[in-house]
What does this fold into?
Amino acid sequence: MLLLTGATGLVGGALLQRLTAAGQPVRCLVRDSRRLGADRVRVQIALGDLADPPSFRNALRGVHTVVHLAAAIRDQPAGSIEELNAIATWRMVQAAERAGVEHFVYFSALGAASHDRTRLQRSKALAEGAVRDSPMRHTIFAPSLVYAPGDRLMTLVERIAMLSPVMPISGRGDALYQPIWAQDVAGCVVAALGLAPGRAPVDGRERYELAGPQTLSHQQIVELMLRAASRPRPTINVPTALVRRALRVLQALMRSHAPATWDEAQLLEVSMTSGRGTADALALGVTPQTIGAVLGVPELKLRRRRRPRGDGRPTDGRPRSGRPALAARPHAPAGR
Ligand SMILES: NC(=O)c1ccc[n+]([C@@H]2O[C@H](COP(=O)([O-])OP(=O)(O)OC[C@H]3O[C@@H](n4cnc5c(N)ncnc54)[C@H](OP(=O)(O)O)[C@@H]3O)[C@@H](O)[C@H]2O)c1
It folds into this structure.
């Protein structure tokens, strides 16, 4: 039995379909089973919450593999970003060790670091540490921005475009991403588990950086999403201080119903790129698609941009030097 957390999310939805199609028995730890849709009849359900570690124990009974995707990008009434990502992962790892789990797969994020500006990336670095320190076989995936048609970011962009003749972009919009399609991410996990045709499970102790084939700025990604929604709009860059104040007021008024929070907006100001480009996905037998191909819009003409400080990649996402872009390298500490 494989325990999947976060099955109702962007990656989880794509992964669950592939796991069940491969005949893998799956138990999903979910807060609300209705959010699984039609998939709920194909899986075992364990009701649970990241904020409720005792719920992990039942969910882990008879489980040999855990794929832990569930995470929070905003505070929830039951727990903060730090509690739901860092502390809950640490508790999940401990519970998995006690339950005799053989392989623990964890989803971190590219750029997770204990000194990052964003609370999410700091909490991911702590969680990665907990997974890495475990004696269990473990595999860490660190993706760049993950997307799929109709996902939360695309829906938000589309809604703003319906209401406004211009598209506001928080800050300069120049943070860089290598967007990767949720289906490609799911393909990598299935391959690592040895469930893809002709693939053996990975050994454990790998860290895969999952990146798409292009390096695009936040602004370019929004422009592509506007095109995909057939709502091209001029963009306007809004000073970060103003965005922060506006979103904090919105959150105070609307609480958990706020359409966006400052913690979420800040994530689009911090680059998430890998010098290994698509190499880790390719090593798992997955060739990541371009975002234009997935969204069905013409590709952006990519110009070579001046490199921001500390970023060593050309805009097509290939590694800059001739350094071989090895796949599963031994873990690099997340607190880099
Ligand atoms: N999307 C990206 O661009 C990106 C980039 C880098 C890393 N990642 C990481 O990749 C993983 C999957 O991302 P994703 O985009 O698929 O996430 P997502 O769409 O935001 O889904 C989050 C999942 O976590 C579950 N969850 C949230 N709070 C929970 C709680 N308190 N208890 C139990 N479950 C809870 C959600 O369940 P509900 O349906 O109940 O809300 C949902 O299934 C995450 O760890 C994420 O941090 C994502």
Observations:
- The first strand starts at residue 2 and ends at 5.
- Residues 167 and 197 are 44 Å apart (CA to CA).
